[in-house]
Design goal:
The chain is mainly beta and about 70 residues long. The protein has 1 helix and 4 strands.
Length: about 70
């Protein structure tokens, strides 16, 4: 079975809410679920599409509450 490579993007200026490391947050989609993760510690937050659509307004792509 082949693994699909997930494209991860760093969020410039973002600070991890757990370890407070600057520029350590990556954003990616894992099986249709938007996910943020810290590369310095084990912090991870996921948000399903329905939650994003409910909270998003105008030009906002996704809403995360760190």
């Amino acid at each position: 079975m082949s693994r699909v490579r997930v494209k991860k993007r760093f969020v410039a200026g973002a600070k991890c809410p757990k370890c407070q490391a600057q520029d350590s947050i990556v954003l990616f989609k894992d099986q249709g679920v938007e996910t943020v993760e810290c590369v310095e510690c084990d912090y991870r937050e996921q948000q399903a599409e329905a939650e994003v659509a409910k909270q998003a307004t105008g030009d906002v792509i996704g809403v995360f509450k760190p």
